[in-house]
Write a structure and sequence with these properties.
Number of domains: 2
Radius of gyration: 19 Å
Distance between the termini: 28 Å
CATH topology of the largest domain: TIM Barrel
Helix content: 10-25%
Oligomer: single chain
Structural class: alpha+beta
Strand content: 25-35%
Length: 318
């Protein structure tokens, strides 16, 4: 039986977009108009401007509708902040597809205040309002597994953040994401820029979303359904489980890796690989499998996890 990543079975086209971006409406250094222009002229199909939703900047959900063209679209959004994590700092929760009148949290600045919504509560409220919600930059935030477990409404985990890579060498969200997947959470994985344009934090990680049209509603529906992959440049063309292997078709890469729970992982290596079949016997009967590829320049792409059905057959307590 073949199980395919649905990003490669759906009708439509792949659209390139960044889901985490800042402007002068919060702590970015470029105007919303200039941010949109740069992404459009760099070949992106869509952008979510997600300025910090705190009172310090008037709880901005920036109106980017005037920046849309017949080939470039925008999705309204914000980076939400409310409640304290275990380290005492404020939550950072990415919400793409918010309504313009989303009710502000009681977050006057980046310091938690008594009586404000928890991170879990504001994430759930954003999902209820129609947003695609992701746990932002777990490594940069100092997120604990207990913190992450609390955000039960999230669709995704930010597994690569280019701003955190260039600004503090803490780009990663895979450890948290993989543990949540192992506990049975159905989550997808996004790569973003978190661009502020104050350092080289832009055009380094993005999503490729499979949708019928480059329009906000179609893109949001596809994001929520997991019809996308994340990349720093390499292209994924098919990802499937077939005959005891993870089969990946892609642009030319040097490594194709199958990743599962615990220590489960296996790679195949070569030169200009455009197809690889990785045996799954080293993945310890993992209930989920995801693909990563690495090209000769060290650039990566990542699939969303495919559920294998092994959960009930071989439960494992972590």
């Amino acid at each position: 039986m073949t199980q395919r990543d649905p990003a490669f079975t759906q009708p439509g086209s792949f659209w390139r977009g960044n889901l985490h971006t800042h402007s002068t409406r919060s702590d970015g250094v470029l105007s919303p108009e200039e941010v949109c222009r740069r992404y459009r002229d760099e070949g992106y199909d869509f952008l979510a401007l997600t300025d910090h939703f705190v009172g310090l900047w008037g709880y901005p959900i920036v109106d980017t509708l005037p920046m849309r063209t017949n080939s470039f679209t925008t999705i309204l959004g914000a980076e939400l902040h409310s409640g304290a994590m275990a380290n005492g700092e404020l939550w950072h929760i990415l919400a793409v597809g918010l309504p313009a009148d989303f009710t502000p949290t009681n977050s006057p600045s980046f310091v938690p205040v008594k009586g404000q919504e928890s991170g879990a509560e504001v994430a759930a409220r954003a999902v209820a309002a129609g947003a695609f919600v992701a746990i932002a930059h777990p490594q940069w935030s100092g997120l604990t597994l207990a913190d992450a477990r609390a955000i039960t409404a999230a669709h995704a985990v930010e597994i690569y953040n280019h701003g955190c890579a260039t600004g503090c060498d803490r780009p990663d969200g895979f450890a948290i994401a993989d543990l949540l997947l192992t506990e049975g959470r159905h989550l997808t994985l996004i790569a973003t820029d978190d661009a502020h344009f104050s350092e080289p934090d832009h055009f380094g990680g993005w999503v490729m979303v499979k949708a019928g049209a480059n329009e906000p509603e179609a893109l949001l529906s596809a994001l929520k359904a997991g019809h996308f992959y994340s990349t720093q440049g390499p292209e994924l063309r098919d990802v499937r489980l077939e005959d005891g292997h993870l089969v990946v078709e892609c642009s030319a890469v040097a490594s194709i890796i199958a990743i599962g729970w615990g220590t489960g992982a296996k790679a195949v290596h070569g030169h200009s690989l455009t197809r690889g079949a990785v045996p799954l016997n080293r993945l310890n009967n993992s209930p989920w499998v995801r693909a990563a590829v690495i090209d000769a320049a060290g650039k990566r792409a990542w699939s969303n996890p495919i559920r294998t059905g092994a959960d009930a057959a071989n439960p494992r307590v972590m």
